[in-house]
Amino acid sequence: MLAVLFATSEAYPLVKTGGLGDISYALPRALCQAGVDVRLLLPGYPSVLKALSLQIVHDNIKLLPNLPTMRLLQGQMLGDTNLPVYVLDCPQLFMRDGGIYQDQYGHDWHDNAQRFAALSKLAALFATHCFDFKPQVIHCNDWQTGLTPAYLAQMPHFAKTLISIHNMAYQGIFPAHLLAELDLSPQSYHIHGVEYYGSLSFLKAGLVYANAISTVSPTYAREIQHPEFGYGLAGLLASRRGQLTGIINGVDTDEWNPETDAHLFKNYSFKTIADKTENKRILCEKLGLSYQEKQPLIGMITRLTAQKGLDLVLSILPEILNEGAQLVLLGSGDKTLEMQLQHFAAQLPYKVSVTFGYNEALAHQIEAAADIFLMPSRFEPCGLNQMYSMHYGTLPIVRKTGGLADSVVDTTPAHLDQGIATGFVFEKDEPQELLRCVQRALLVYRNPEMWRAVQQQAMAYDVSWSSSAQQYIQLYQRLL
Ligand code: ADP
């Protein structure tokens, strides 16, 4: 049986800040169902220790020179899965209030290098057969576990490594003087190692030393080999393109299914699509928006960062509202963007609703209530919300980049005839291009028959994990 350790810094429903959290639950679960002996490794944040019932596997592990010994705990993932979870228990590193990467003021934790080096080192120890579970593959995710392959380059071991890039924009860059404290060999500090413009890069370490690299869509795999998307690592990625694969994420269709979603005001399928409107009516009432059945409601659920193209939306929002549409947005992040959005909501409370903070239930309700979902990202490694949207019959408007380009098929007459149109796509990250695309979507919206046809095609699109999980299994097997 194929044995895989899936090392990650977050996993739904225990702890999640974005797409990585979703994937770290859904992919291992799908692998488990496909017969892989996959186990998660997570840091012992308060929410993880509280939610799981855990046993001590090892209680005296020395990972880094300046840190106390740590404990390895084991339990079982929540929900209907047999997924085992290992937890790195070190209160000094992980037992704190605030976010998992940042404090309550939005500043990165001062010891993030030590926190995630410890997690990476523990993942590496599994490959040396220190513990009962002896994985053949260590699957690392993003910079937080990027050092694992670098540690393995320093020690005899028995496993292959795969690193998945979920977002190149976050690289884990730290001062070079931490090299010894992080137990990295002096030899690793060079241009073909962990060095990055005079600092240490955890992500680069992973990309240099892992046996294989994957990212979360074929288009993003091509894009990151170019300077515009490669964040200084395009050359390295291009030189490793033989080991670089793009596998699009799936969606956890148990969590995200309009027929059974417990967060919805009314469940529906394509056959009962008229019931979708009930979700719109109740959400509009709850949020203080005026409600008319035929008035298009545009949804957004997003981290508020430059990546997500909110500046494009803000610059054409008056025109969008003039077209008769309303906007409901849920997001958290950049305070300036929050203020700008709040400004619109205060001026036009019946047309614009903004909610700041993290709210899982509201996210589901927006997906069900909205007619259109807006995702004008500047770059998007994969993106999940466009897939949730298609599955909920909420037609996405996306920019042609990364996983958005790979999953949404533009509504053109030809695509409609072929039965493959699932949303609306625009190319350039310019406000007027976005506006034209919104206008095009609204034109189709006003033609109920055509709208239904696209909804049907979008809802029929296979967003499940099964084919992507198979591609990961093939990748693991190729590695071995
Ligand atoms: P990213 O990982 O770049 O944030 P993705 O589209 O891949 O973007 O995944 C984002 C995930 O986080 C989705 O499941 C989305 O619904 C969720 N999400 C983002 N912001 C919020 C929020 N404020 N409240 C609830 N869920 C959110």
How would you characterize this protein structure?
The two termini are 12 Å apart. It is globular and about 65 Å long. It is α/β, with parallel strands linked by helices. It is built from 19 helices and 18 strands. The model has no long low-confidence stretch (mean pLDDT 96). The site of adenosine-5'-diphosphate has 17 residues, from helix 1, strand 13, strand 14 and helix 13.
Name some characteristics of this structure.
single chain; 480 residues; alpha/beta; Rossmann fold; 2 domains; 6-stranded parallel sheet; 18 strands; binds adenosine-5'-diphosphate
Question: Roughly what fraction of the amino acids lie in strands?
Answer: 15-25%
From the N-terminal CA to the C-terminal CA, the straight-line distance is 12 Å
Number of domains: 2
Bound molecules: adenosine-5'-diphosphate
Write a brief structural summary.
With 480 residues, the protein is α/β, with parallel strands linked by helices.
Protein topology:
Blueprint: E1 3-7, H1 19-33, E2 37-43, H2 46-51, E3 55-61, E4 70-76, E5 84-89, H3 91-94, H4 112-127, E6 137-141, H5 147-152, E7 160-165, E8 173-175, E9 195-196, E10 199-201, H6 202-209, E11 212-215, H7 218-223, H8 227-230, H9 234-239, E12 244-246, H10 276-287, E13 297-304, H11 310-322, E14 326-333, H12 335-347, E15 352-356, H13 360-369, E16 372-375, H14 385-391, E17 395-399, H15 402-407, H16 413-418, E18 424-426, H17 431-445, H18 448-460, H19 466-479
Parallel strand pairs: 1-2, 1-6, 2-5, 6-7, 7-11, 11-12, 13-14, 13-16, 14-15, 16-17, 17-18
Antiparallel strand pairs: 3-4, 4-5, 8-10, 9-10
